[in-house]
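ok so for the tutorial part 2 we go from a plain amino acid sequence to predicted structure tokens. step 1 is just haveing the sequence, like this:
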Amino acid sequence: MKVTAKMIAEELGISTATVDRVLNNRKGVSGKTIKRVKEKAAELGYKPNTAAKFLATQKRTEIAFILPVVPEYFWDEIEAEVKKAAKVYEDFGFSVYVHRVDTCKKDTQINYIKKIIDKNPYDALVISPHDAEPYINVINEGVNKGIPIFTLNNDVPQSKRISYVGGDYYHAGFLAAELICLFSKKLNDIVIIKEDEDFYQMTNKEKGFRDYFYNNDIDVNIHVLSIPSTAVKSKLSEEWKKRTLYSADAIYVANGILGNVAEFLFHNYDEGHKILIGHDMSEKVYKFLNNNVIKSVICQDPSSQAMITVKNVFEYLVLGERNEKSETIIKLEIVTKANSKYYINF
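step 2 — the prediction. this is what the tokens look like for a chain of 346 residues:
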């Protein structure tokens, strides 16, 4: 049964108008009465009608999502899902604005966030930071100025950010190593392909990957190829990298270029025995997964990340809910040729 102001008034023996003033934070009520009304409302399980409150006040809540540009297939899906999720709350005056900012050039994203914080046109920011430690100060600056900041897909755990929604990258790397071992009986040389910067996400994936072999006493040679997402073809074509890939028994692509690496292997090597593992689904990844160039993909549901983040921001700003849980870790999902059709979104 829905608890109303009239029910609270009857319980306390006071007028409905007085209860209504308390519940809507209007003046003209003594402190003692305010305390009684709020305690009784909590006891009865009263929940405010947020839609009605918005219609009465016409207060709008505007949120900026600052998302990367590449890999496009991943962030395009996140952007679409953010806008879709926000429509659920638009009757409450809740609006989102998506900014796509290049993260390949160092400090570009940080400077963009600083400008928004200085102008302060939004009620909150959701960012997907390129790294962790370099973003601590800018996040703390925004929060200290009264701007709630949330992180999506990549975290800055040492900052004052309100909450994080995304993957556990240490366990993502650990799982990638386990999959490689399940697919291959004999392993001598393994290649990790990663970005050319040791930022938070890459560092954690590589640590998890290496720890799997260390924890299980598996002796392998692990080679690292640093290949930025902006120069895939030219970097892969370097002779020493071609030789390293050729001699590898397995390849783990820790950044967003799995489809490009699969295409390169397909056109340059005849043998199909290499174990190729990576992250996230795209049209190209789906193609090479289904012709057996890629053995498996680890996904972390971009739609859930977007939906949960929008919900968290809405509840924090509009409903005033302060959930003590500071992070929501999206489960890792193993995709193979057999179930890949359930993960396509293009």
